[in-house]
UniProtKB/TrEMBL annotation:
Listed name of the protein: carbonic anhydrase
Record's catalysed reaction(s): hydrogencarbonate + H(+) = CO2 + H2O
Organism: Sporolactobacillus putidus
Superkingdom in the source lineage: Bacteria
Lineage: Bacteria, Bacillati, Bacillota, Bacilli, Bacillales
Presence of keyword Metal-binding: yes
Binding site for Zn(2+): 38, 40, 96, 99
One Pfam family matching this protein: Pro_CA
Amino acid sequence: MSQLEEILEYNQKFVEEKAYVPYEAGGRPAKKMTIVTCMDCRLVELLPKALNIKNGDAVMVKCAGGMVEGSYGSTMKSILVSLYELGSEAVYVIGHTGCGMHGLEAEKMIQDMKDRGVGEEVFTALESDGIDLNMWLGGFQSVEAQVQKSVSIIKNHPLLPEGTPVYGLVIDPKTGALKPVN
Ligand SMILES: [Zn+2]
């Protein structure tokens, strides 16, 4: 049985047995909070549990490193939608120790792409389109500094509702311990 078939089989039972009932919630975050964090698989259950967040409590925006890159990228757009359209009133940027984006070298990933069959001509074409892969794929050197940078982009955004608190934190992906970043 393929993974997809297993998922679909499980899912059918899940719905039939009404296993969804404990997770029923409205579409607006009950705790009026937006969390921006990393896609790291260790945080899938641990982060909500460690913050006492239940289904329906918070809007969760996830991406590699939980990095807010640029004022008009998809992460920033999600934050604004959450604040204006979903009733969120605060933003929490939560980086984590041991992040895959920490020290990520774009050069290695580009080499991996080449090793897996992406042709030289693709890189040449991207370069002539003005796409800087080294910049785009690069990670960060300090999780605290990256959180501060993301917080600063959000706080200084011209479209941020006035008075919105924006907090920076780092979570331990093993224990769930949180440390505020100032
Ligand atoms: Zn991460």
